[in-house]
Specification:
homodimer; 196 residues; elongated; Tetracycline Repressor, domain 2; DNA-binding
DNA sequence: CCATTTCTTGAACAATCATTCAAGAAATGT
DNA sequence: ACATTTCTTGAATGATTGTTCAAGAAATGG
């Protein structure tokens, strides 16, 4: 017997970066071979095919994001302030030079074609996105009733999606923050103010 | 001499539908040959290459959408109510079976890759999106000061983007409407209420 | 009615795509 | 040390990609 001579998670992370930047279709297996260092045969033995590798990338990205969210909510004494900090981080990403939105958002828009040739992958992506909404709703139910928490979670998701797209326009951080404050006026934005 | 034996606008519209549903990369020239009825040679004589045809599709889509917006704003006596009606229409699209978001939003996310191989097309898409924002800002400046109108236009764009992505989740029309009302509370939603 | 120009045709092109597989290397089980 | 299993290698496969071009058809100009 012989054990795998590469770190599977490392390979998935490298592939995730490529898929994230280029998209599913535009990322070629040749590029993946290059950026992972593996030969085609090893890749196909480990992941089956391109879809299998993409599925692993989506799962890893989703699990990581969800874990970060849950850790943040578990350790904070103010869900609202934590959410403000999350948005603040997203604004920082949006104004950075090599901004490339959110992997799940990009994947959903690319995979949701009429022919539906990637039905399994699309469902996976949508499950990951739905799971994120659940995490927000659960956290908010600490401060609000269940109905209200779910409604607020939907509003948060809408703003995340909006920001993930709007981020490509070269707005200033102040403009983006102001826009979020306008739509999410119930959040305690004062708690993250940096100006004096 | 011989004049073109096909209606160029008709060809662009057919190609737009395909690009919109499938995306730029996934839509193959063979598919375009099929859905337009033209032979490759004619397509390449008329549009140069795939990028040229895509550019025409984006321009046509953008010009059409902008014209509709401007016509609506020119003929209404309430900008706010018209905007509510626009969102109401977007909700209807979102809950329909063959929903495929907004062509410009999808194109922006697909073309904005790190390698930036489609820089010209990306810029075109972003210009179209920026033009939409200007139309909203101009319309709102009828009711608000210029600064406020621009801020509100940014908020509208963020909500449009959010809805264009969130629309893929199978939410009810009521939930989507409620989410928009939460973030755009300054709009006169009462004016489009259908319930009694 | 011929010459010229413009458009159409569709087979063919090179490049790239995802994927395969026989052969060799390496690690384990006994 | 040997047999067995598992992983690696990388050239090769057939399909599909965007694009071209020589030849023919059609319409116009004089």
């Amino acid at each position: 017997m012989s054990r795998a001579q590469f770190d599977k998670q490392q390979v998935i992370d490298a592939a995730t970066g490529l898929f994230w930047q280029q998209g599913y279709q535009a990322a070629s297996m040749q590029q993946i071979v290059q950026c992972t260092g593996l030969k085609p045969g090893s890749l196909y033995l480990a992941f089956g095919n391109k879809q299998g590798l993409f599925a692993e990338a989506i799962k890893a990205y989703g699990a990581n994001g969800r874990a970060q969210l849950q850790a943040l909510f578990a350790s904070t004494d103010s869900i609202g302030r934590s959410i403000c900090e999350i948005f603040s981080g997203m604004i920082s990403e949006a104004i950075s030079k090599d901004y490339c939105s959110c992997f799940l958002v990009k994947a959903q828009l690319e995979l949701a074609t009429e022919g539906n040739t990637h039905a399994a992958l699309l469902q996976l992506v949508q499950e990951e996105l739905a799971a994120v909404e659940v995490v927000y709703a659960n956290a908010l139910s600490r401060d609000f009733g269940e109905q209200k928490a779910q409604a607020l979670a939907r509003s948060i998701m809408l703003h995340i999606f909006g920001l993930r797209v709007y981020g490509y326009k070269h707005n200033s951080a102040e403009q983006l923050l102001e826009t979020l404050q306008l739509g999410l006026s119930w959040l305690p934005w004062d708690s993250i103010e940096t100006k004096h």
